[in-house]
Specification:
Shape: elongated
Order of helices and strands: HHH
Structural class: mainly alpha
Largest sheet: none
Strand content: under 5%
Distance between the termini: 32 Å
C-alpha cells in the first residue's frame, strides 16, 4: 500500500463526515440530487428488468468513480494548503 492510499484510508472517515455535512446543508446540491432521482425514477419505469439492472450497475460504477475523484480532490486540496502554508512561513 502506497503512502497516498494509506493517507486516504486514514482520513477517509473524516472526509466522509465533513463532506456529508456539506452536502446535506447545500441547497443547490439537494435540488440537483432531487432532479437526478426524479429522472432516474422516470427512466427506470420504462426499462426492462435487464436494462434496469444494467443501469443500476452503471450508476454504482459511476458513483464509485465520482467518490474516488472527490476524495482525490479533497486530499490534493489539503496537500496544496500545506504547501502554501510552508511557502508562506
Amino acid at each position: 500500500m502506497g503512502y497516498f492510499d494509506l493517507l486516504a484510508q486514514t482520513i477517509h472517515p473524516f472526509i466522509a463526515e465533513r463532506l456529508g455535512k456539506i452536502h446535506a446543508g447545500d441547497d443547490e446540491y439537494q435540488m440537483r440530487l432531487k432532479a437526478e432521482n426524479s429522472i432516474y425514477e422516470q427512466l427506470n419505469e420504462t426499462l426492462s428488468e435487464k436494462q434496469a439492472e444494467e443501469l443500476e450497475q452503471y450508476l454504482i460504477a459511476a458513483n464509485e468513480a465520482a467518490a474516488r475523484k472527490e476524495t482525490l480532490a479533497y486530499i490534493q486540496g489539503m496537500k496544496d494548503l500545506l504547501a502554501l502554508l510552508k511557502t508562506l512561513s
